[in-house]
């Protein structure tokens, strides 16, 4: 045949003999193997078997990508249970006990799967030799059969496994370094090394996820775009299955029942029995104040305020079955208690800005506020201070009206903020330093930490005080200058919608180090100085009022009249003018600074007793729906009483229990007050550092505006103070009145009743935190409207963290799921539970009827 006739030369006899000898040697080798008592060489690995190995690894990769397993497995004393499909379970039955890493071929026992056994083009003889070597190593030292190159590859693979946190799953058990991945836009966090970053995923390890006797549910997520680009076809299939599981609301659950678990995570769900201790509540203080006033004036009210029904939590499913959009003329800017048109129309007068005050509807709304068209995630801090997306706050009127004063300008798809204001056209920082130069004792960020800015505009003053270490509560009425507070919040600057009208502001007395007004258009000197006396209530003894307005430096008739009225009023109030700057060509502004007295000597020596001192029964801390009164409270004289001494300089005051908390007082959680304070601080430091920062899957780089809906001592805010966030601490009116403690620490907050709407614009906050809030509201109002309010003030893609009893958390979870939110994690232990959920961009299409 032609095939055998290629070489026409005759073959050498020596060659034929060698061939015969080789054949005989192979036959003898075969007989020896057959007669050997222990077979150590397996059958030769064929190409087909290699392909089977590759398929097995693909199966494992598919399981790992979704973090699913079929079996209940034991690790020590911990039982780990997860869900999977029946097909995957059937596939496991045919597999061996050995499991493989999906990325670098590392076995659970530590061996490395050789490339030759992966199939697809490998040399058959080489594969057989490596298979024989691996089998031989199983009965000897595993490292003995590896050459230097293979050892280096194993070390590199181990390093890759550690860095990527790859999961190792299989029939035989679950690896100790199993990690759970949370979807995260970019889980990187500046200055904090607790978050493991891999593309766009933040991980929580099994060790940090475990809570004694707890069940953990996490939302499975797909791989990052970079990882997906390198996956095989089988991995792509797994990714598609994963997306389907997400859409179906699939979750994984971990029940770690008997393991010895980390103390910090056990603390995560520890319910510390809250009580009032020695603290009264704001509701009690305000009620008592109203009662005392009624008795003093001997006038009976014609009609009592309507009490909210104690409706309880109830079941939210029926009420939330059909969501609708709110039908309000305010549209996407709807604030229920400030846009109550029916109540505003019934007002007899608006002379004192009554129409800008809170008028809450009788029934809390259960409709949803629409988002502006083309809304997008806010620009991150600190860049947001200089520019925001126009479509997020689509208002240009202020730019047209105040553009010449450098408030705000329209620049393409952005609104830009040059940092100016009516009184600081050349920039807020220059103005802030002007005040420091006029009164060096103000010491921004050291002595003066907590500031109130009245009539804040777009809050550039407060925004740039961050650079000087001061924290500013900015306030302005809604729509006085189109969406000014909304601009501030979108920029990442603290602000609330409020007005100095007929009622006290929702803050305790004597808590602000500085009060500032830059041409804020408040008529301080009229009505017996009623509004300036409200600032006197809020200022600490020794605190200063910074006033920069045209009456300070201009000589026009109206300005002269106002200045004369202010100087007479401040002198009668015993305020000392400690500095006054004149108008200059460069700054074009003048500043007057007044200081509140630190004792009562001036009050007792006044020849005129106007304005009068308040009655001893008048509580300066009563601030919830309390009418203004033209009187002054005496300065505390007892050195152990709050207000008698100035707090320690910032930041030392943050971690110190206030001097006026002593061991004879009982704290909120039952310990002596200073110990209670310290325990609360340690608790939140542990929770934040070990759980919120490292294990919640939150991209903290996207978080700026935070609200603690039930703050107690402000422990959460204190634990976050080194982050690039600010925290609005809310003390509810029916909880212990600890808001003065929060201010004493150099933080700030506000009183509020969560049975009503909060005085802020929609989409104001990136993160809301509610620690045992909802269960405590149930006796007074339903849970559903409160969750709707959370939906209103939380930004799309913002996060909600709820810690409460399990029944309440389950109820909230039901509501947020009906709102199409993503439930990212639930943890339960005994009767306590925690929920982390992400608000989505979903909105209903139907509008409610009026």
Automatic annotation (TrEMBL):
Using the UniProt record, give the first listed, main subcellular location: membrane
- Renumbered residue ranges of the record's region Disordered: 88-170, 220-253, 275-319
Bias kind Low complexity: ranges: 88-97, 224-239
Localization terms from the record: Endomembrane system; Membrane
Select a single GO molecular function from the record's annotations and give it.
Answer: methyltransferase activity
Bias category Polar residues: which stretches?
A: 275-285
User: Which InterPro entries does this chain map to?
Assistant: Put_SAM_MeTrfase (IPR004159), SAM-dependent_MTases_sf (IPR029063)
Specify residue ranges for compositional bias: Basic and acidic residues.
287-297
Biased composition annotated in UniProt, kind: Basic residues: 298-309
Taxonomically, the superkingdom here is Eukaryota
Entry keyword set: Methyltransferase, Signal-anchor, Transferase, Transmembrane
Q: Which family does it belong to?
A: Belongs to the methyltransferase superfamily.
Q: What is this protein called?
A: Methyltransferase PMT26
Which species is this UniProt entry from?
Answer: Panicum virgatum
């Amino acid at each position: 045949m032609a095939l055998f006739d290629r070489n026409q030369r005759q073959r050498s006899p020596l060659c034929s003999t060698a061939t015969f000898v080789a054949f005989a040697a192979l036959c003898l080798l075969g007989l020896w193997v057959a007669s050997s008592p222990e077979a150590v060489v397996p059958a030769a690995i064929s190409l087909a078997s290699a392909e089977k190995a590759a398929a097995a690894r693909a199966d494992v990769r598919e399981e790992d990508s979704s973090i699913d397993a079929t079996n209940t497995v034991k690790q020590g004393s911990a039982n780990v249970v997860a869900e999977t499909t029946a097909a995957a379970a059937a596939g496991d039955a045919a597999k061996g006990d050995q499991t493989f890493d999906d990325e670098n071929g590392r076995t659970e026992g530590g061996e490395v799967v050789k490339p030759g056994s992966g199939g697809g083009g490998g040399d058959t003889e080489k594969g057989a030799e490596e298979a024989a070597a691996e089998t031989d190593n199983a009965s000897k030292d595993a490292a003995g059969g590896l050459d230097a190159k293979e050892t280096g590859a194993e070390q590199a693979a181990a390093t890759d496994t550690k860095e990527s946190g790859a999961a190792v799953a299989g029939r035989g058990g679950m690896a100790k370094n199993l990690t759970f991945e949370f979807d995260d836009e970019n889980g990187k966090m500046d200055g904090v090394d607790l978050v493991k970053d891999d593309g766009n995923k933040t991980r929580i390890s099994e060790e940090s996820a475990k809570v004694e006797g707890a069940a953990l549910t996490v939302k499975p997520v797909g791989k990052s775009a970079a990882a997906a680009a390198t996956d095989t076809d089988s991995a792509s299939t797994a990714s598609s299955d994963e997306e389907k599981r997400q859409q179906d609301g699939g979750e994984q659950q971990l029940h770690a029942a008997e393991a010895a678990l980390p103390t910090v995570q056990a603390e995560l769900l520890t319910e510390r029995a809250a009580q009032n201790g020695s603290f009264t509540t704001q509701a009690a203080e305000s009620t008592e104040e109203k009662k005392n006033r009624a008795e003093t004036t001997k006038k009976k009210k014609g009609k009592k305020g309507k009490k909210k029904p104690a409706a309880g939590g109830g079941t939210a499913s029926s009420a939330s079955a059909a969501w609708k959009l709110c039908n309000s003329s305010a549209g996407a800017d709807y604030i229920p208690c400030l846009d109550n048109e029916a109540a505003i129309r019934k007002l007899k007068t608006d002379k004192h800005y009554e129409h800008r005050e809170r008028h809450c509807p009788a029934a809390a709304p259960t409709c949803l506020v629409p988002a502006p068209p083309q809304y997008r995630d806010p620009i991150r801090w600190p860049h947001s201070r200089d520019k925001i997306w126009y479509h997020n706050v689509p208002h240009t009127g202020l730019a047209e009206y105040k553009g010449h004063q450098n408030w705000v300008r329209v620049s393409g798809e952005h609104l830009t903020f040059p940092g100016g204001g009516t009184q600081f056209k050349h920039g807020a920082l220059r103005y802030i330093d002007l005040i420091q130069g006029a009164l060096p004792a103000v010491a921004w960020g050291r002595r003066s930490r907590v500031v109130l800015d009245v009539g804040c505009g777009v809050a550039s003053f407060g925004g740039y005080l961050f650079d000087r270490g001061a924290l500013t509560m900015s306030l302005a009425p809604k729509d006085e200058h189109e969406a000014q507070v909304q601009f501030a919040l979108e920029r990442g600057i603290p602000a609330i919608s409020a007005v100095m009208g007929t009622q006290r502001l929702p803050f305790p007395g004597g808590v602000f180090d500085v009060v500032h007004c830059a041409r804020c258009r408040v008529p301080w000197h009229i009505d017996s100085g009623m509004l300036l006396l409200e600032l006197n209530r809020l200022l600490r003894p020794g605190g200063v009022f910074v006033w920069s307005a045209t009456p300070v430096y201009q000589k026009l008739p109206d300005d002269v009249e106002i200045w004369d009225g202010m100087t007479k009023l401040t002198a009668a109030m015993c305020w000392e003018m400690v500095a006054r700057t004149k108008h200059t060509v460069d700054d074009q502004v003048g500043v007057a600074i007044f200081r509140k007295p630190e004792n009562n000597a001036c009050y007792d020596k006044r020849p005129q007793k106007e304005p009068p001192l308040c009655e001893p029964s008048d509580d300066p801390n009563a601030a919830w729906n309390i009418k203004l009164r033209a009187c002054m409270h005496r300065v505390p004289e007892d050195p152990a009483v709050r207000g008698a001494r100035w707090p320690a300089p910032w930041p030392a005051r943050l971690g110190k229990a206030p001097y006026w908390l002593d061991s004879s007082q009982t704290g909120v959680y039952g310990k002596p007050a200073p110990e209670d304070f310290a325990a609360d601080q340690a608790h939140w430091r542990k929770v934040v550092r070990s759980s919120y920062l490292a294990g919640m899957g939150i991209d903290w780089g996207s978080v700026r505006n935070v609200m603690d809906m039930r703050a107690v001592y402000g422990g959460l805010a204190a634990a976050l103070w080194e982050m690039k966030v600010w925290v609005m601490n809310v003390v509810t009116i029916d909880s212990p009145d600890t808001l003065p403690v929060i201010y004493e620490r150099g933080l700030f907050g506000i009183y509020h009743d969560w049975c009503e709407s909060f005085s802020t614009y929609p989409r104001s906050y990136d993160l809301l935190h509610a620690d045992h809030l909802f269960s405590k509201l149930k006796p007074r109002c339903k849970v559903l409207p409160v969750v709707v309010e959370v939906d209103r003030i939380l930004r799309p893609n913002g996060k909600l963290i709820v810690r409460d009893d399990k029944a309440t958390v389950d109820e909230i979870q039901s509501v947020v799921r009906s709102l199409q939110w993503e439930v990212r994690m639930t943890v339960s232990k005994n009767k306590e539970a925690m929920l982390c959920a992400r608000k989505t961009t979903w909105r209903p299409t139907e509008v409610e009827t009026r």
